[in-house]
TrEMBL record:
This is Mismatch-specific DNA-glycosylase. InterPro entries: MUG/TDG, Uracil-DNA_glycosylase-like, Uracil-DNA_glycosylase-like_sf. It comes from Streptomyces badius. The keyword DNA repair applies. It comes from the Bacteria. Keywords: DNA damage, DNA repair, Hydrolase. SUPFAM superfamilies: Uracil-DNA glycosylase-like.
Length: 182
């Protein structure tokens, strides 16, 4: 990708990978410019979402971003708190997160996934007014879905390794498997 292609992708909206009745709807913060250029979620080479998803047991093999459509057959999907693409999440303000949280709530009510997994604790805290939220299952539901806050798989999140993220994602996978109707 050229710098010009990336710059032209600012503000683009990337379609969700979603359907009604999913087991888990993974929710990113917002699309990266790489995602906006390719149309594939978590497409930046430094993003660890795809390897973590596989290591945690959600997928039978490591999918590539261009294979994101295969998630639906596994009962999984992807959306974002804020729809517009930026180079970095810190380009978003608190009001965008709050508005995104309201839009996400409506989407979850419509799609009715069993779980909403927000990948980014700061985004979750801001979007839903939960300043003390921690990684893991949350007490609240959103649109009838149970909620789990997961670590952000961005390569910029140095606090978590692929291994430690995979452990946390696996905790969610186990909770999903334990729920009737999974």
């Amino acid at each position: 990708m050229t710098p010009e292609e990336l710059d032209a992708a600012r503000g683009r909206i990337v379609p969700d990978v979603a359907a009604g009745g999913l087991r888990v709807l993974f929710c990113g913060i917002n699309p990266s410019l790489t995602t906006a250029v390719t149309g594939h979620h978590f497409a930046h080479p430094g993003n660890r979402f795809w390897p973590v998803l596989h290591r945690s047991g959600f997928t039978p093999r490591r999918l590539r971003p261009k294979e994101q459509g295969e998630l639906l057959g596994l009962g999984l999907g992807i959306t974002n708190v804020v729809a517009r693409a930026t180079a970095r999440a810190d380009e978003l303000d608190a009001e965008e997160f709050r508005q995104g949280g309201a839009a996400l709530t409506a989407k979850v009510e419509r799609l009715a996934p069993q779980w909403l997994a927000v990948v980014g604790i700061t985004a979750y805290r801001t979007a839903f007014g939960e300043p003390r939220a921690r990684i893991g299952p949350q007490d609240r539901t959103i649109g009838g879905a149970r909620v789990w806050a997961l670590p952000n798989p961005s390569g910029l999140n140095a606090h978590w390794t692929v291994e430690t993220m995979a452990e946390e994602y696996a905790r969610l996978r186990e909770a999903v498997a334990d729920r009737p109707g999974s």
